[in-house]
């Protein structure tokens, strides 16, 4: 790891020395990594690349044991294994006017997509939403690739009060012709975005995050129902037509291992040295 930053509470940005992936990765693709020999495979979206410097950027939320362990690494540390780029890249063309929506940690994931759409001469209206002001991420970066940036917070502590779907409805209601919507964020958010755009027949692409295991299309763990067909998010996606995804089925599958995930986190927290993972001496508890 070359650089570590804490973007907001529990959300970290790593710059990794991974030249081959940095050269090949395109917007919408992801990588899978393992921190150590016993580690779970963690799928994470390619948040950015610097191909000339051989740098791959990941941004992740410490959701449970594996992402907390990843977050405890420091500059100079190594990740045991990292594979990618995986998945199909976003379909980028000149659509006209596009709305790019990022919810929470979905914002760093929508950033390369918004940038590629801007570079392809689209008018980009970006909407990014967070629970509150202290959780706002990458607003400056999103502004730099957007013709208009709308920031929303659930509690109104910054920007507009409300959900990203309220902001999308406002943009639609002001009469702007929208040719495409791209959305990345919590499953419930992507479901509501798709429901908002559907009556207006605005093509809507969402990036799904089911539990993944091999990420090569062989285990079947990441299957999702799209338009009545079973699809594998790792090789057929992760992006799909939001108007066809069975979001309720996806949410039910994501809940499958909740008791095991909770137990695993409790055991990890209990095993940590007192004063934090570095005994309060290093930067790992940041
Ligand atoms: C294609 C893809 C891209 C992703 N990109 C990002 C990203 O850029 N940033 C980010 O913060 N998160 C991203 N995620 C989610 C991230 O992989 C999970 O948060 C992480 O695996 C959780 O592991 P954990 O052990 O810390 O938490 P756990 O306690 O195991 O789980 C916490 C939550 O993460 C889900 N989860 C657990 N294991 C997996 C797994 N192997 N695959 C997918 N979800 C899992 C669980 O259902 C649960 O909702 C992505 C997921 C996918 C599938
Ligand atoms: S993760 Fe195994 S088939 Fe997709």
TrEMBL record:
InterPro entries found in the cross-reference section: Cyt_c3_hydrogenase_gsu (IPR012165), Dihydroorotate_DH_Fe-S-bd (IPR019480), FAD-bd_FR_type (IPR017927), FNR_nucleotide-bd (IPR039261), OxRdtase_FAD/NAD-bd (IPR001433), PyrK_electron_transfer (IPR050353), Riboflavin_synthase-like_b-brl (IPR017938)
Keywords: 2Fe-2S, FAD, Flavoprotein, Iron, Iron-sulfur, Metal-binding
Binding site for [2Fe-2S] cluster: 219, 222, 234
Cofactor(s) listed in the protein's UniProt record: [2Fe-2S] cluster; FAD
GO BP terms: pyrimidine nucleotide biosynthetic process
Segments forming domain FAD-binding FR-type: 1-92
One MF term in the entry's GO annotations: flavin adenine dinucleotide binding
Free-text comment on the cofactor: Binds 1 [2Fe-2S] cluster per subunit.
Gene3D superfamilies assigned to the protein according to its UniProt record, in alphabetical order: Nucleotide-binding domain of ferredoxin-NADP reductase (FNR) module, Translation factors
Superkingdom assignment: Bacteria
Positions annotated to bind FAD: 59-61
Protein name per Swiss-Prot or TrEMBL: Sulfide/dihydroorotate dehydrogenase-like FAD/NAD-binding protein
């Amino acid at each position: 790891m070359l650089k570590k930053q804490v973007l907001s509470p529990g959300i970290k940005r790593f710059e990794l020395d991974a030249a081959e992936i940095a050269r090949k990765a395109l917007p919408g693709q992801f990588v899978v990594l393992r921190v150590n020999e016993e580690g779970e495979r963690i799928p994470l979206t390619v948040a950015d690349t610097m191909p000339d410097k051989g740098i791959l950027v990941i941004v992740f939320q410490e959701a449970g044991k594996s992402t907390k362990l990843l977050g405890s690494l420091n500059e100079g540390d190594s990740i045991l294994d990292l594979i990618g780029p995986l998945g199909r890249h976003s379909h980028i063309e000149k659509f006209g006017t596009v709305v790019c929506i990022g919810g929470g940690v979905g914002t760093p994931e929508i950033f390369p997509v918004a940038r590629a759409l801007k570079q392809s001469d689209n008018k980009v209206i970006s909407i990014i939403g967070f629970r509150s002001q202290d959780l706002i991420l990458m607003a400056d970066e999103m502004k730099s690739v957007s013709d208009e940036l709308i920031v929303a917070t659930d509690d109104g502590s910054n920007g507009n009060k409300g959900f990203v779907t309220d902001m999308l409805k406002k943009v639609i209601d002001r009469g702007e012709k929208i040719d495409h919507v791209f959305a990345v964020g919590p499953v419930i958010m992507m479901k509501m975005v798709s429901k908002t755009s559907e009556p207006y027949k605005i093509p809507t692409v969402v990036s799904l995050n089911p539990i993944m295991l091999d990420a090569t299309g062989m285990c079947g763990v990441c299957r999702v129902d799209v338009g009545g067909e079973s699809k594998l998010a790792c090789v057929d996606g992760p992006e799909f037509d939001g108007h066809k995804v069975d979001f309720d089925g996806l949410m039910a599958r994501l809940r499958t291992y909740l008791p095991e995930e909770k137990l695993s986190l409790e055991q990890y927290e209990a095993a940590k040295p007192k004063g934090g993972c570095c005994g309060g001496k290093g930067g790992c508890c940041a």
